[in-house]
Amino acid sequence: VQLQASGGGLVQAGGSLRLSCTASGRTFSSYSMGWFRQAPGKEREFVGASSWSGGSTYYADSVKGRFTISREYAKNTVYLQMNSLKPEDTAVYFCAASYGIYGTSGGAYDYWGQGTQVTVSS
Fold first, then answer.
1. Phi, psi (5° rounding) for residue 94?
2. How many CA atoms lie within 13 A of 26 on its CB side?
């Protein structure tokens, strides 16, 4: 599986962005999908994840209520809708795929996208 993330950019605090992650292959529906981020000088952190069916999602406390993950199976794409963005959301965002149950650790994921930069100005 190859993952291509896109949609990052520069936005003012309080604004919104939607990230996309498109997967190659025909088994997209078999994978749990996760989003992670890494800010400069910091470790990669879990943002949120979706089960393979999309029926279950889980978010980090720092983004709960502001970020939403959804999946569009016809396009092999998972989205991360980010609202009420804060400067502390600035990071490179990565999508990842797990051929199994989703988790909050990067080690639970088998495939990674290349990352897309999100910058939130104050």
1. -120, 140
2. 0
107 within 8 A of 43, measured Cβ to Cβ = no
The C-alpha atoms of residue 71 and residue 95 are separated, in whole angstroms, by 12
pLDDT in tens, 21-75: 999 976 778 899 999 999 999 999 999 999 988 889 999 999 999 999 999 999 9
Nearest residue to 63 (alpha-carbon basis) of 25, 34, 26, 40: 34
| Pairwise CA distance, residues 90 & 82, whole Å | 12
DSSP type of residue 26:
S
The strand pair at 45-50 and 111-112 is best described as: unpaired
CB 28 within 8 A of CB 116: no
Task: With CA atoms as reference, report the closest residue to 18 among 63, 64, 69, 60.
Answer: 69
